[in-house]
Amino acid sequence: MSLLFLSMFLTMYPLVVEIFVFGFFLESRDECGHNPVRYFAILSMQRSGSGWFETLLNSHNNVSSNGEIFSVLDRRKNISSIIQTLDRVYNLDWFTSASKNECSAAIGFKWMLNQGLMDNHKEIVDYFNRRGVSAIFLFRRNPLRRMVSVLANSYDRYAKLLNGTHKSHVHSPEEADALSKYKPVINSTSLIHDLQETENSAAKALEYFNTTRHIVVFYEDLITNQTKLKQVQEFLNIPVKDLSSRQVKIHRGDLSDHIKNWEDINKTLNGTEYEKYLRADY
Ligand SMILES: *[C@@H]1O[C@H](CO)[C@@H](O)[C@H](O)[C@H]1NC(C)=O
Ligand SMILES: *[C@@H]1O[C@H](CO)[C@@H](O)[C@H](O)[C@H]1NC(C)=O
Ligand SMILES: *[C@@H]1O[C@H](CO)[C@@H](O)[C@H](O)[C@H]1NC(C)=O
Ligand SMILES: *[C@@H]1O[C@H](CO)[C@@H](O)[C@H](O)[C@H]1NC(C)=O
Ligand SMILES: *[C@@H]1O[C@H](CO)[C@@H](O)[C@H](O)[C@H]1NC(C)=O
Ligand SMILES: *[C@@H]1O[C@H](CO)[C@@H](O)[C@H](O)[C@H]1NC(C)=O
Ligand SMILES: *[C@@H]1O[C@H](CO)[C@@H](O)[C@H](O)[C@H]1NC(C)=O
Ligand SMILES: *[C@@H]1O[C@H](CO)[C@@H](O)[C@H](O)[C@H]1NC(C)=O
């Protein structure tokens, strides 16, 4: 009955939804006590494909990835509230629509670098290493495309282009088209600096967590290379399966179609190390 309830929940809410029903599943964990549970955290940045990636992982019946739990400010106010929250997740006391059953072989959540992760990196690395939490870094190779997505998503927060509802992720090409009609203007004065900042954050995060067991995955590679997702499943030590997501990419095709001041941006990046981002797909 509980599984049926949860799969209904999953269908209705493709993104992870928190359900606070404590002790709901715990009693039967004993049955599967022999199944080792692996802990992971997806470390990423906003608009890097982590929502999509998480729905892929959650389509595996041995994975429960519990969403962006540190989007709630109270949980990341200080290191004590962070540790308390982590304990609840990894003590299997955290229930969401992604919770599969007491046999889940891999349990985790996604965590954006700017949600207290970088600021408290020392203590978090200690925690991860002490409890055996593995990190899955998910980054985008093309920070310019990510920037378009960040600007468009924050515009939609108040514009609510889909019939008055703000959506960060969509499930049909029609919805994707409606959202991508809006073309953001990119600040060309700060562009190079902003791209550098994004790359620096990723590099710094990798350096901070270099003693933690980890894998680095790029969104673009997940899309173009089937083997990548297999590699992630092997990293999590779960049976390799075909994973699927109902999410549809919002900004498809040439980047020149998605930036209002394209000529300006093209000129700004012409001849710089970032020039390649103007043309790259995805
Ligand atoms: C940490 O934050 C929590 C939640 O906001 C608060 O209740 C607690 O007093 C804070 N603890 C410290 C040591 O600041
Ligand atoms: C994966 O999930 C299935 C179905 O719940 C379960 O029977 C199996 O034991 C799980 N595998 C592992 C490695 O936990
Ligand atoms: C808005 O709602 C109408 C009626 O429900 C529907 O036909 C249409 O596809 C929706 N448009 C978008 C962009 O979601
Ligand atoms: C663009 O960036 C520059 C440099 O950071 C800043 O001074 C300016 O205010 C920004 N323009 C807009 C419209 O935000
Ligand atoms: C991790 O990064 C630090 C700081 O750059 C460096 O001193 C250390 O040698 C690195 N450790 C490993 C295991 O790579
Ligand atoms: C796909 O990913 C696998 C695993 O990382 C790698 O070994 C392989 O070279 C990649 N293939 C291509 C075409 O990039
Ligand atoms: C970008 O600018 C270059 C010249 O620097 C031009 O050849 C190219 O067609 C432009 N690209 C697009 C997609 O507008
Ligand atoms: C792009 O840069 C080259 C030199 O690197 C220059 O000759 C060309 O005029 C530039 N194009 C534009 C559109 O600025």
TrEMBL record:
<comment type="similarity">
    <text>Belongs to the sulfotransferase 1 family.</text>
</comment>
<dbReference type="Pfam" id="PF00685">
    <property type="entry name" value="Sulfotransfer_1"/>
</dbReference>
<protein>
    <recommendedName>
        <fullName>Sulfotransferase</fullName>
        <ecNumber>2.8.2.-</ecNumber>
    </recommendedName>
</protein>
<feature type="domain" description="Sulfotransferase">
    <location>
        <begin position="42"/>
        <end position="252"/>
    </location>
</feature>
<keyword id="KW-1133">Transmembrane helix</keyword>
<dbReference type="InterPro" id="IPR027417">
    <property type="entry name" value="P-loop_NTPase"/>
</dbReference>
<feature type="transmembrane region" description="Helical">
    <location>
        <begin position="6"/>
        <end position="26"/>
    </location>
</feature>
<dbReference type="InterPro" id="IPR052796">
    <property type="entry name" value="Nod_factor_sulfotransferase"/>
</dbReference>
<keyword id="KW-0808">Transferase</keyword>
<keyword id="KW-0812">Transmembrane</keyword>
<dbReference type="GO" id="GO:0008146">
    <property type="term" value="F:sulfotransferase activity"/>
</dbReference>
<dbReference type="InterPro" id="IPR000863">
    <property type="entry name" value="Sulfotransferase_dom"/>
</dbReference>
<keyword id="KW-0472">Membrane</keyword>
